[in-house]
Amino acid sequence: MQKMTDFVVRTSLLFGIVAALIGWVFFDGKVACSIGIGLGMGLLGYCSIVRLTQSLSMEDGKAQGQKGYVVRYTMYGLILVICAWMHLSILGVLVGFLMHKASLLAYAQIDKEDHHGRAS
After folding, report:
1. Digit-coded pLDDT (tens) for 34-65
2. N or C terminus of the chain: which is more exposed, having fewer CB within 10 Å?
3. Which residues, other chains included, contact 3 with Cβ-Cβ below 8 Å and sequence gap of 6+?
4. Residue 27, Ramachandran bin (φ over 0: left; ψ between -120 and 50: alpha; else beta)
5. One Pfam family from the UniProt entry (predicted)?
6. Residue 119 — very low, low, confident or very high, per pLDDT cuts 50/70/90?
7. Which whole-number Å values give the CA distances from 109 to 7, 56, 112, 114, 115, in the listed order?
8. Higher pLDDT pick, 77 / 60
9. How far apart are CA 39 and CA 31, in angstroms?
């Protein structure tokens, strides 16, 4: 789990920095800031999922999972509302969030190739 988390955080930051620089060059600083906020939102959500999985119990696992889900999506909604209120780019926030998701896909692909290579 720690190996995956390290990869996801590093790769998310790399993807997010590249996206923010592109946003800054082609649009403006508000877009770059929005991308950074979206990336931070994605990483916060990921860290909360990691903490949740490490603390799940057999007795209350379903309830803990549902509570974590509600808290996480409430946080996402609040961040989006605050960004809209501040006239930041909602699309930029979503791009930053997607940069985090792209790092998860990259990890899954690399992990799949590692396992496939070992099986051969």
Report:
1. 999 999 999 999 988 888 777 766 677 677 77
2. C
3. none
4. alpha
5. ATP-synt_I
6. low
7. 12, 27, 5, 9, 10
8. 77
9. 12
Pick left, alpha or beta for residue 112 (phi over 0 → left; psi -120 to 50 → alpha; otherwise beta). Answer: alpha
3-class DSSP assignment, residue 97: helix
> Is residue 35 within 8 Å of 13, Cβ to Cβ?
no
> What number of H helices and E strands is found in the chain?
4, 0
Rounded CA-CA distance 115/105 in Å is 15
Helix, strand or coil, per DSSP, at residue 117: helix
> pLDDT category, 116, cuts 50, 70, 90?
low
What is the C-alpha separation between 107 and 99, in angstroms, rounded? 13
**CA proximity to 70, closest of 38, 33, 45:** 45
Tally of CB atoms within 10 A around 78: 11
CA distance 20 to 6: 21
